[in-house]
Amino acid sequence: MxxxxxxxxxxxxxxxxxxxxxxxxxxxENGMKxxxxxxxxxxxxxxxxxxxxxxxxxxxxxxxxxxxxxxRSERFKTEEGMQAxxxxxxxxxxxxxxxxxxxxxxxxxxxxxxxxxxxxAIPGTIDNDIGCCDKTIGYDTAMNTVVEMVxxxxxxxxxxxxxxxxxxxGRGAGYLVLNAGIACGATxxxxxxxxxxxxxxxxxRMKRTQxxxxxxxxxxxxxxxxxxxxxxxxxxxxxxxxSRATVLGHVQRGGxxxxxxxxxxxxxGFHAVQLLxxxxxxxxxxxxxxxxxxxxxxxxxxxxxxxxxxxxxxAMQISI
Length: 320
Ligand code: F6P
What we know:
The chain has 320 residues and is of the alpha/beta class. It has eleven helices and eleven strands. The structure holds 6-O-phosphono-beta-D-fructofuranose (F6P).
């Protein structure tokens, strides 16, 4: 392949810039022309792109967000949108594409590959909900952000003998809330994968810890469950502990990527271009047990991973 494109799609994630940097530098160092495509598949269909060079990606390894901007595109899901994208690839001479995003973006990459434009997808999402991959780009940073924010909330919660009920992102997946909850020592963690009984898993646990003289509490709740304001009211009414609700929101998506995310993104970006250099497309780059691998996109989309129930049980025993 002589000319490749790179785009970021779906919700942005810290570390996407480090992945773009790796793709551009690997491409350029191997004699390829690399186009940076703006705003995901929208930029591809609208021919909104520019040729990048080694210096286009200077000073971005440390920056959150994505210099290529991101979007979710409805038009790209239509046949008309797909044809527009293919036409632009032909006009620009793009013979391979790196797509950085979540599973919605992977479907687009698979469809484009099936239409003759080989794509390699890189998992970038704070949700960590990609079946074939132990860790996605952005997850480690988001987890550390949640921990930092909850530590701050905890300071004031402690000063006032209160209960903090905190909503954490993750879409339909509980990886972020579970692991951040463990790191924050949350008394209760509610996530979509584990059925819960509010009375037993929140109120009774709080009452039990009250009896051992605990006077301040943190309850962490997945956004897929939501309702933190009502939960705080109920906790206050049933336990007598003054309670406040916080929705962390998009603060979780921003900020400087951690070292772990920068390294993961660099490895994945490098690997993606290596595949395209060999003419291989329709692959998802992944990491399993610290090894960088790749899978057929169609197979990868079918793969699932499960929440470690042992982790949850451990948290419930020690955060009491
Ligand atoms: O997929 C990443 C994510 O941040 C989810 O955790 C969250 O549910 C969603 O994106 C929010 O999307 P938006 O930024 O479009 O509101």
